[in-house]
Amino acid sequence: MDRPRIIVTAVVLGLAGAIAPIAAMFHLSWTQAVQNEHERLHLFASRAIARADMSLDEARDALRQIGRFTGTPCSADHIARMRQLTINTRTIEEMGYFENGLLKCSSWGPTDGHVAQSKPDFVTSDGIAVTARMQPVMSAGHTLMALRYKDHNALVDPVRFADIIVDPGVQLALTTENGILVGALNGPDPARIGKIVAGPEEGMDDDLLFATAHGTGWIAVATEPQSQILDGVRRQQRLLLPLGAFIAAFIIGLVVWLSRRRLSPLGELQIAVRKREFIVHYQPIVELRTGICIGAEALVRWKRPDGSLVRPDHFIPLAEESGLITAITDQVIALVVSDLNSLLVADRSLHIAINLSATDVGTERVLPVIAKALQHTGIQPRQIWLEATERGFVDIEAARSTLARARELGYAVAIDDFGTGYSSLSYLEGLPLDALKIDKSFIDTISTNSATSSVTPHIIDMAKTLKLKIVAEGVETRAQADYLKERDVDYGQGWLFAGPMPAAEFIAYCRRAKVPAGKA
Ligand SMILES: Nc1nc2c(ncn2[C@@H]2O[C@@H]3COP(=O)(O)O[C@H]4[C@@H](O)[C@H](n5cnc6c(=O)[nH]c(N)nc65)O[C@@H]4COP(=O)(O)O[C@H]3[C@H]2O)c(=O)[nH]1
To answer: Looking at domain 277-512, which of 3.10.20.30, 3.40.190.10, 1.20.58.1370, 3.20.20.450 is its CATH number?
Structure first.
């Protein structure tokens, strides 16, 4: 992904990361507050059911007691007993005795016997027939509930079935299972209660929150206006919004950290390695005596997604420091083989020099990589030169072992940038080498009177003493080329002959250079 896309993606992710947790916490505050309210309403409804059951138990107890009366029905004793039970049972307003379906007497005294038994709304499992709303004949007060067991009935004030303490704003209703309103607190709307009873256990009906509880035979409904939960929502928001803000800050931090990492030079280089964004340019090496091209040095370039080329000086040090260099070396080896396989097979006199990093020289890791890349290509190992700089000789024993093994396998080994490090003759003597590349800084001094100009002939003599092939790097002028040729330096590389070029151009250059290249 290129830079602008990373930035755009980071901004989008950052915004989403900031908005999503806050929005989620707003939503969660609301649902949590609603759930809390439902639980609270459910508690009131359950209490109403418990209260109704208790009232029913009281009435049932009184009905059973009077059922055990064995004296003459509607005698003074019987009426006194009913009256006593009415007085002693808080729930009961009046008791009555029925014969052949007609009220014969009540706790108030004998009746004229024309009041018929009411039709029950439901019958409990133990045989108590409940009529939710009926008008008492004797006491002629407000609507009561009738509970009948065998021949006796008890009239109960429905308020007794729902008289629990609720929070302000909460309305309570007790209905039979078929929706007949039995008792109510704080004036709920009967029409809406009827609708709620037929629906789910809890929820929201327009602007009304509700929860129901089911008992044997009745349903309790607790409701409250939606506006009542705003306090609860605010309470939840006070708890959850800081958490949302923390998560948002964490996500934004993470996005910034990740995008900075991806935008950092190392992050970009890691992506380049993963996406194999490297290409190789080839700089011809010519024989100074004839000017014929005898090979090239493979020089890596990083081709950015926008097409621009980054020179190795700008990323090789970072690659070496981070350990990415080994992957880059491997990609260069693969590219050399795929770019120049045919050329190297067609012309056995050509070689390609590959730069090894200090890490590559310190271990033998790279050797099997090259061997594998050359398999089935027809390229001969001697056509591959391995260039090691003096930086790679920090662990001299490891370097010696790698270079010796490389030569055993048939590769040629050259020391690159010679003279810039700490190499001395005695140092060089111990190393298994085929060639020495004189650094450009020494070539630059040729024909000048600088202090280092006298060093160049010594380097040349030293290489000759060690019977090494010599390559002069960075040859830019004819005077430099003439000087080197006079001193029997074998090969030259530099802008005088050609700069680094893409593979196709190098192949064309080599074909032309059957005729001597440059007039060295
Ligand atoms: N001013 C001037 N410069 C000339 C002339 N002739 C050649 N050069 C430049 O000198 C450098 C020669 O490569 P080097 O000494 O191995 O130095 C190389 C080498 O140490 C390293 N490098 C390049 N490719 C690789 C690679 O694949 N792996 C590793 N580990 N290092 C590489 O990067 C360094 C720089 O490479 P480049 O930028 O391609 O720079 C190249 C080349 O473009 C000339 O006449 N005048």
So the answer is: 3.20.20.450
